[in-house]
Amino acid sequence: MVQPQLAGVKVVDLTTVVFGPYCTQILADLGAEVIKVESPGFGDAFRWSATPAHTPGMAPGFMAVNRGKRSIALDLKAEEDLAVMRGLLADADLFVVNVRGKGLERLGLDYASVSALNPRLIYVHCVGFGQEGPYADLQAYDDVIQAATGTATLLPRVDGHPRPRYLPSLIADKVAGLHAAYGAMAALYAREKTGQGQLLEVPMFEVFSSFMLLEHLGGQTFDPPNAPVGYARQVDPYRQPFPTRDGAISIVMYSYDAWDRVFAVLEDPEFIAQERFTVKGGRAAHQDELYQHVARLTPNFTSAELQSRCDAAQLPAQVVRDLSEVIHDPHLQAVGFFQRREHPSEGAYFEQAQPVRFAGSAEEDGRMPPRLDEHGAEIRAEVARRSEARD
């Protein structure tokens, strides 16, 4: 569903995969007009991502981050198509691009060239690494960034298995896309006051380093360090979902008194009443022992029983669902998170709603994920009309 906060904002999107497209989808969800520029014949590589598609080039991953956009295929090495691109940029508000700097310079689409054409343009350059550092020209993908930021060493800290592993999510791409979106909106706000566009650099490595090290810099926060890196609570091998009679459940004991409540729920209040747990600092000092004892008690109950008991005791808890079950979650269904729509070529599909809601804003159905060059003819015609009007 589209909301009107950015109505009237025109975005030219020269990005692929997830980092840039996630940013521009957020802008589209908030009402911006997003024109997705793709290479002829192949388009965005994410069109061909692993999950099968009904129609070649319309993979579910692509559909998930490209709703609300129009697609035009342009060969930017051909002068005629490059002229169309310049026409799009001449009256755009935002240009979001993830092509590396040298390639943009060769095309005349670097910031200096484009800002000369349109001084009010906000130029959002989605890069792998900050352009003033030694990694400036290196390629970056989610896996590479998880490796470079130490994220691939988090799971070994939890389970003791020494092999580095990726978190099974495009988490670096998505986090970087969120930063690009808020940066773009902040720049739009600044332009309202100054009338001037500006260049934004959004480097995935620095963004994700900031995101992960917020808690995991740990003892290296101080000079000299006073403890190891890693937030102990997050890498604790015993702070995991607890087994139940028929599955598993997450229960969070964050406050001092939550431990009293959880052992009351688990019908063993005597355990937490022992002196080593009641002295000041005792529960923190023996946290691993507490987690292990909870894990011994939870199999006495079903997941549903524990969910009900934790809710009544005001303990944060949720049954562990399989990934395939989330689409049927009653809360998500009640708030309309999954919207069933009919795509003209892909048929029935589920679209995930923009999770941020604005009170008092009327929502409208947005554009569906576009087929490659689906809007090419109409966009070319629009560029030609605006060019004639300027002349």
Care to describe what's here?
The two termini are 37 Å apart. The chain has two domains: 10-211 and 333-390, 3-Layer(aba) Sandwich (Rossmann fold); 242-319, formyl-coa transferase, domain 3 (2-Layer Sandwich). The chain has helices at residues 19-29, 60-64, 79-90, 101-107, 111-117, 142-148, 154-159, 171-194, 204-216, 256-265, 269-272, 275-278, 282-285, 287-297, 303-312, 330-334, 376-390; strands at residues 10-14, 33-38, 69-73, 94-97, 122-127, 199-203, 242-243, 248-251, 317-319, 338-343, 347-352. The chain has 391 residues and is α/β, with parallel strands linked by helices. The radius of gyration is 25 Å and the shape is elongated. The model has no long low-confidence stretch (mean pLDDT 95). The chain is 40% helix and 13% strand. The chain has a six-stranded parallel beta sheet, sandwiched between helices. Strands 7-8-9 form a three-stranded antiparallel beta sheet. A two-stranded antiparallel ribbon has the order 10-11.
